[in-house]
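Sample intake sheet
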Amino acid sequence: MSIKKIIQPQNASSPVGPYSHAVRAGDFLFCSGQIPLDPSKPDQILSEMSIAAQTQQVMRNIQNILEHEHLSLANVVKTTVFLTNLADFAVLNEVYGRFFTKDAPARSTVQVAALPKGASVEIEVVAVYGN
C-alpha cells in the first residue's frame, strides 16, 4: 500500500493550483485549504459574497471532501483559518459554530494579506479516520 492516497472528489471545484483536495496518510486526512468556490457556479465572484456566505460555502466544501471519505466534521481534530480581515472574526465564529456544535477541534486563526480568487476566508482541516 502507498504511504499516501490522493483524494479528489468528483463533485468538488477544481483546485486552483497544483495540489490535491486532500491526502490520506495512515489514519489522518489532510485537507488543503478550501476557499468558497461553489462547484455549481464556477464563475461566481467571491469578493461579492458576504463573509458569512463565504464561510458557509467553505464549510460545505470541507464536508464534501470528508463525506467522500465517509467521514464527518466530528472526525476533524484541527483547523486552520485564514482571514483577510480579522474584523470578520465574530461573523466567522458564528457560522463556524453552526458546523462544529460539539467537541470543536483545535483551531488557529491568522490574518493574511490576500487569498486566491479574491476570497476573504480559507480553512484547512486535519481529520482522523475511525470513531
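Comment: Residues 74 and 102 are 8 Å apart (CA to CA). The radius of gyration is 14 Å.
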